[in-house]
Amino acid sequence: MILEHKGINIFYTDQGKGSAIVLLHGFLENSTMWNTFIPTLAKKNRVICIDLLGHGKTPCLGYVHTMEDMAIAVEAVLKHLRLRKYFMIGHSMGGYVALAFAEKNSTALKGLCLMNSTYEADDDERKLLRTRANKMVQSNFENMVRMSFANLFSDVSKRLHNEKFESALKEALKTPIQGYIAGQEGMKLRQDKFHFYKLLNCKKLIIIGEKDSVIDKTKLVNDTKNTNIQTIIFNEGHMSHIENELECQNAIMHFIE
């Protein structure tokens, strides 16, 4: 399904009936990343998946997609569907978008799950890496995407889940160069949202991969001690929906109960 928004079409899917769950994909992903989760979740729930700006079947809206820009597009879809209350689960960049969304729509959220994601802003080193990647991708897109994506999996994990890894990589390569650059530029502009997330009045969960090279696992665990933010740690890396598929599904099912 599509919704016209600021001159472009936002693509989304809407399946099942019941309590609403909004699923937001990460950078170099799209709504297809949730395909193995939807049949289980949609048995008793209404599941909405949205292609974020410059990803999947949603085109770009400019050369910088801030997390707020993406959140406004998400908000447009949910208003169009006349949804009032829902759970929101964001993978990686989708978690950043979910936090930006929550800042303006906190009362609509029953729960917010950061899946292999964080409330932290980019540090200077991460910003520099994003800037370099955006320069390199302009002349060597495919190799950059392959390298970026491969770094999200351990060597063992790539072999163990080779078919799903290749399928996810195929989807990543469909991302337009403009979408890649705009997403990276937007992620560089994020502010730290720990205090906001800590005070957010809904159920909260952070799903962490033990071997995740993108997220500072130790800091997240220490920060959230003695708060009402629940953390779950799986034994693999950044792609819990592939590397710890069943455990991740179970954690989400438990979270939305």
What does this structure look like?
The chain has helices spanning 38-41, 67-80, 93-105, 124-137, 141-150, 155-160, 162-172, 177-188, 194-199, 217-224, 240-243, 245-256, and strands spanning 2-5, 8-15, 19-24, 45-50, 86-91, 109-115, 203-209, 230-234. It is of the alpha/beta class and 257 residues long. It has one domain (2-256): 3-Layer(aba) Sandwich (Rossmann fold), CATH 3.40.50.1820. It has an 8-stranded mixed β-sheet with strand order 1-2-4-3-5-6-7-8, with helices on both faces. α3 (93-105) links the parallel β5 and β6. The model has no long low-confidence stretch (mean pLDDT 97).
Question: Summary?
Answer:
With 257 residues, the chain is an alpha/beta fold.
Key features of this structure:
257 residues, alpha/beta, Rossmann fold, 8 strands, globular, AB_hydrolase_fold, AB_hydrolase_1, AB_hydrolase_sf, Alpha/beta fold hydrolase, hydrolase
Order of helices and strands: EEEHEHEHEHHHHHHEHEHH
Mean pLDDT: 97
Biggest sheet architecture: 8 strands, mixed
Q: What is the overall shape? A: globular
Structural class of the helix and strand makeup? alpha/beta
**CATH homolog superfamily:** Alpha/Beta hydrolase fold, catalytic domain
Overall domain count: 1
How much beta, percentage-wise?
15-25%
Radius of gyration: 17 Å
Count of helical stretches: 12
Helix content: 40-55%
Roughly how many Å apart are the termini?
27 Å
At CATH level 2, the architecture is 3-Layer(aba) Sandwich
